[in-house]
Amino acid sequence: MRRFLASALFLSSALPVLAAESKGGFPPFNASTFAGQLFWLALTFGTLYLLMSRVALPRVGAILADREAKIESSLAQASKAQAAAEVEAQGLEQALAKAKANAQAIAQEARSKSAREIDAKRSAVEKELAAKMIAAEASINETKTKAMANVEDIARDAVSAIIEQLSGKAPTAAAVTKAINAARGE
Amino acid sequence: MAQPGTIDPIHQFEIQKLVPINLFGFDMSFTNSALWMVIAVSVITLVMVYGSAARAVVPGRLQSLAEMAYEFVANTLTGVTGREGMKFFPFVFSLFMFVFAANMLGMLPGSFTTTSHIIVTAAFAMLVITVVLVAGIVGHGSHFFGLFVPSGVPGWLLPFMVLIEVVSFVSRPISLSLRLFGNMLAGHIALKVFGAFVAALLGAGAAGILAPLPLLLAVALTALEFLVAFLQAYVFTILTCVYLNDALHPGH
Question: Any CB–CB contact under 8 A between B54 and chain A?
Fold first, then answer.
């Protein structure tokens, strides 16, 4: 509205000049130029429309669609690669956990195996020692009884020697045995 | 024609014959108006056809410009009419680019503004309304005329409403053409008047001191006119989209 007022103002200020020239009047309202302008407008705008609708717009549209498709496919590819990497990482983690468990199992086995071996060795040694002890005890007993038997003989010899020294005559073996047994308190 | 020193802001709108041509008894001479139409189409073709020729995924300068224009008009069109409006995209795009290029080229000193002639803007407006009518009737048949019958109006008021709707529809091409014509005309006259003031003041002795004032105004107006040149092309386009939307979805 303001612009129209302004144009009206300028038009009125220019009117005297226009009147002085008065060559076909106000150019935009000069109907004799209408046919030519319409003709050239139809020609140029028609050409523009054909160029745009046949050549330029399909091409630019294709470029834009192409770019969008490229970006989309690249993004899809990237996300696919990321997913693959994640799967791989998971696999690796699993393998690591498995290897750890394996190592633990092996260590456990080795430990229990060595413990079992040690146990077996110890029990064998203990058995051997026990057997040796029993044998030693038996030999001690034997020696003891042997020694005890020897002690009787020695005592009889000593008794008959003492009596011979005291009485001058050797006692009989039976008398000595009898005496010893009596001395033993039987 | 105009004597030096006189203010003649209308002279710039005069049609001058460059190559006289007579077809079937009509004067079809190649004029300055026709020349600037050809220049406008050439500039648009340079940007849109030559600019997109490389089909680069990473665009250069000219291709960026072409893509920007494409996306700007496509977004405007789909924003108003939705996806189905894209079948009118070549038409709306050509319209916007032609009006925009003509307006902008008209800002060059010594050039001719083709859109400052009522016959050109009226032809565009009639073309738009014709496309709307044809598309509406082809797409929806008699249902298209439901556009003139608003729903939810009491029966006794209906004739009035239909009359108002018809008047408003008929006035569309008039307002569409006058808006563009008036804006381009008034802006260029204003620029010329202020420019002539500068010259007149400089030639008027002591009053020459005041010459920078209209010069400043002329500079400010030039900036404003560049804005108006774009804005009017945009307004023309978006109104075309709104009218096309009526043809695509009547009965709103």
Answer: no
Helix, strand, coil percentages in chain B from 3-state DSSP, rounded to 5: 75, 5, 20
**Domain assignment of residue A143, yes or no:** yes
Find the domain containing A177 and state its range. Answer: 52-183
Q: In Å, what is the CA distance from B66 to each residue of A61, B59, B97?
A: 10, 10, 11
d(CA B43, CA B46): 5
Give the range of the structural domain holding residue B203, as residue numbers without chain letter: 11-248
Contacts of B91 in chain A (CB under 8 A): 49, 53
**Cβ contact (<8 Å) for B90 and A57?**
yes
Q: Which residue of B lies nearest to A29 if distances are taken between CA atoms?
A: B118
Binary contact (A45, B98; C-beta < 8 A): yes
What is the identity of the amino acid at A34?
F
Q: Per-residue pLDDT for A71 more than 80?
A: yes
State the complex-level ipTM: 0.87
pLDDT tens sequence across B18-50: 877 777 777 788 888 899 999 999 999 999 999
**Cα angle vertex A36, ends A32, A40, to 5°?**
160
Q: Give a yes or no: residue A138 inside a domain.
A: yes
Q: Tell if the CB–CB gap between A49 and B13 is shorter than 8 Å.
A: no
Place of tokens 């024609």: B1
Chain A nearest C-alpha distance from B29 (Å): 6
Minimal CA separation from B155 to chain A, in Å: 36
Q: How far is B49 from chain A (nearest CA, A)?
A: 5
Q: What is the pLDDT of residues B64-79, one digit of tens each?
A: 899 999 999 999 999 9
Question: Is B5 inside any structural domain?
Answer: no
Asked if residue A16 belongs to a domain, the reply is: no
